[in-house]
Amino acid sequence: xxxxxxxxxGEFIFPxxxxxFQDAHRFGFIYEGHGDMTCMQCIDHPEAAFxxxxxDTERLQSPPTLSEDxxxxxQGSSQAPVDYAHLMWMLVLNPFADQQWVTANLKAPIILNxxxxxxxxxxxxxxxxxxxxxxxxxxxxxxxxx
Amino acid sequence: MMVLRRKTGEAIRIxxxxxxxxxxxxxxxxxxxxxxxxIHVPVHRLEIYQIIQQENRASSDTHALQWLQQRSKxx
Lengths: 146, 75
Description:
The structure holds 2 protein chains of 2 kinds. By secondary structure, chain A is of the alpha+beta class. Chain A has helices at about 5, 55-60, 70-75, 140-145; strands spanning about 10-15, 25-30, 40, 50-55, 85-95, 100-115, 120, 135. The radius of gyration of chain A is 15 Å and the shape is globular.
């Protein structure tokens, strides 16, 4: 389950926008009540809406280390250094690209600072990372096999 | 597109707040550059940024919430 109560307490600011949606800076989260997926919806651009799920350390190991630039971006106007306990790592899912699988973008996770309400998309330059990692079966397939 | 000739150690400034410094030229085929830009200006290798742009656009949809709602109704 996702710590939804905190996510839905107001908007998150993405100072750098999202790749492909550079003008999309303000996002809200919509949770449907159960499960581990949530919708990150841009407040100003309706077409910028993503399905996210939390980073899974069991499947992916620990998230990568953040650079000083990333931390500064997540710090916002706060003078205090970023507290790692307030960072939430999430993966962008793609439910539209594959008929069998909902895929996860391991190359560019989302990081949210629950304290400062800032977010970034962390574009990782390791070329070996999977852009469409098979994350979960498509819902209709999962239901039929249950 | 503007083309400038620069030597190692020389810099280019874009606007008031972006500075690019030529740090090193290696084997005459690649250069190492340092980029100083405001925090709201993302800086990435072009080919990787384009891949992420495309995937973000493919992942994003006005029906994302609808998809999530339908998924939630399934057992």
